[in-house]
Amino acid sequence: MERLTRKQANALSTWAGAVALVLAASFMLACGGSGHRVQMDTAPAEETTLEVVLEEVGVVDSTRVVNINSPFRGRIVHILDSGTEVSEGDVVALLDVQSLEESLENQIENLKSIRNELESAVEEMTMTLRSNALDISSAQAELDLTRVELANVNQELSELEYLRSRDLVAEDNVRSAAFRLRTSEISTYREDMNLRSRVTGSQTSELSNQTRLERISVRASDTLRRIGETAQRIELAEIRSPAEGLFLRHSRWDWSSRRNVERQSGQEVSERDRLGEIPDINHLVVRSQIPESEMLNVRVGTPVELSFEAAGNLRIPGSVRFVAPLAVERETSPGGQITASGDQLTGEKVFEIEIAMERMDERLRPGLSARARFVLDRRDDVLTVPLEAINTTSAGRHFVQVVNQGKREERDVSLGQSCDRRVEVLEGLRPGEQVIIGADRRS
Length: 443
What we know:
- 38% of the residues lie in helices and 34% in strands.
- It is of the alpha+beta class.
- Among the domains are: 68-95 and 240-279, CATH 2.40.50.100; 99-236, Helix Hairpins (Orthogonal Bundle), CATH 1.10.287.
- The protein starts with a helix and ends in a 7-residue tail after the last strand.
């Protein structure tokens, strides 16, 4: 009887195992068909510290930089790579001077032409002055001669008038002398006018020549000034570092390529365009951005956890020191320029910010990428569950599946804040209740 009981027990065990397998297969089919395995991992609803965080990317930059600008409009022939260490006076960029050299040659030829014109004008003026001097001297001599003749005729008339008063000469003699006196006076007046005309003509000629010389001198001065400026530009085409440090090419957002573009050889630049800068590595900050939706949550003083993967995963605490007053496209922001890709803009608006670091590190360099983790809110003893435990219907209803006495129970929940791994449960759960993680979400 005992032996039969063992056989029955073995048969019963075998039968029970088969039934269990059939039931398990039926349960799998009922829950989604063959090939779908239901996840039964659970986790407790527990009171934890909830941190609401925002993660962004940024770039290390210096608050103190020495800017290097183009001295004139031209084409970049050569420019140092970003990150090149330079000493004061080292050449960091070179501008094309071919057109300047051609312009200088033309200006020198023009100056030679002006010099020849000036020499010709001086020679002509000298000859004119000599001619005018001779004319004036001749006119002066003629005037002096007529004045002498006038004096003689006047003396003769006086004598004849005296003799006539004594009836020693005839009246006709007196009249003849008076006529000669009148003729002599007219000649003297004519010669005086001739002299004055010669003097005036000489002065007019001298003034004209002087004006001509002044105009030529002005042209010569202007050409000399241009030659000096061109020669200075040729000298300034070798753009030198004003300080010792790390040279960085200037970069700007290029809308056509939708990316941040550095200065390159062959680019055309205008006068005073930024070519590069030498940052002070002792005054570094992280420039980043925040979405406009977080504008009211991030303010000056908000703590930030910074990490620098390229610097050996260096971690430095910091805080927001500046928030820009105007929103910009994400692609044009410091972090957006790092992550921008493709030709389409996201359309997202962000506010640029500066993050001060609590300490400096010798591994940090301008241009280094950084990850910024903003702690927007921190609360203790908050009832939370893993994010994977939350199910959401198409109508927006949130629920969890609770394990209650070995059975699965669906329960609606009201949610609050969430972090990267857990979410706050305001209503619907009690601390310690077990919720299913990774349950079927096809509701």
